[in-house]
Amino acid sequence: MIDNDGQFSLLQMLPVYLPKGVVVEEFVSTMMPWHAPSFLGLKGQLSADSTERVLVVASEWPNSWLRTVQRLSQEEQERFHAYRFRTDHTLATGEVPFVGVSKGNDPPDIVATTKDGPIGIECMTFSLGQRRRAQGLFRNIRQMVAANPDSFLHLAGSVVHMWFSDEDSVLTRPHSQNDKISAEKLARALAQYRPSGEEMLRHRDEVPEQAPDFGFVTTEAGATFYSVPMAGAAPVSGLFSLLGFELSMSFSTLHSEKEEWRSLQEKIKRKDKPGNDWILISSGAVDPVGELHPAEDVLAGFLLENPQPVGPLEHIKRVTIHMWSTGLAVDIWPERRVLFGPLYNGSVPAHQPLTPGAHGAAGSPASPN
């Protein structure tokens, strides 16, 4: 339930896939200014008989941090990682950690100068490949919709939540780029869909005993969606500028502390080479298309809450995790210590506040003539 000017709330429901036996203990969420979830997730245990901690990511909304004409190269991303760490370090401590950033010989990625002399910095991205690939497929769907703006003007003022499933999976990734038939079915369903939004409005603090009929629409190709009115603000995005509405995707992934730590430890050991003095792990950092993925910072924080040893390492003298959304930096090798932060209350994407009443009563979009 989300307060809207202290009078109304918007009820939103999104699907989450939980493997059998997972014990849920905590609900984690952050919201966009236009009252759509930036991140939805669950924390708990792998089973009632296990103490292993798990994080389930249900939904996230990548933030457009940099508008790009072409994909960022790996070298460009690495420079962003190094400079962002230096900026946060300087803001937090008043000291500049290094200067003279230049390309290394791979290894290292970057050579810089510290007060103790030159240092080789290996830049590593703490990323969730499975989720990034799913968002990439969803980006294709957004582009398909944006290419036919006249067909979707009736959705103005809404956020359309979408998820995908097939016969073998409760939740799966979006349609592949070459699956034009499924994409066309989805486009037709969106063009025919007429949102209401009234069933999501509730008086403040009123929690229904039974979920209302959200008017879900499911295509033959396994795409399901429904809409919620925008409230409070509207996103500054290309899709909203063209069509007046936005799309978000739900896609569940489960992450256990042991598996995620094992994966991170293996990546660090592969970087344990001559020339690499320091591994800088950037979480929630910019991807090749200029977006930030909030689930990556949440997962990095989850691992820091459930620490495991990293070493021994032969060449690497230091390993640091730096979280972009909060500015928190923590050394995890050779000893665990907080370097600085958090500096920020969170990353709020660019948005425009909505004037009450200008887009329909109680946050509902006005019906087109």
Descriptive labels:
alpha+beta, 22 strands, 7-stranded mixed β-sheet, 6 helices, disordered N terminus
Net shape: globular
Structural class by sheet pairing and helices: alpha+beta
On the 0-100 scale, what is the average pLDDT?
89
Give helix % range. Answer: 10-25%
Q: Largest sheet, described in full?
A: 8 strands, mixed
From the structure provided, what is the oligomeric state, counting identical versus distinct chains? single chain
Q: Give the N-terminus to C-terminus distance in angstroms.
A: 31 Å
- Low-pLDDT stretches are 1-5, 360-369
Please provide the ordered H/E string of secondary-structure elements.
EEEEEEHEEEHEEHEEEEHEHEEHEEEE
Strand percent estimate: 25-35%
Number of strands: 22
Q: Work out the radius of gyration.
A: 22 Å
In DSSP terms, counting alpha (H) and pi (I) runs of 4 or more, how many helices?
6
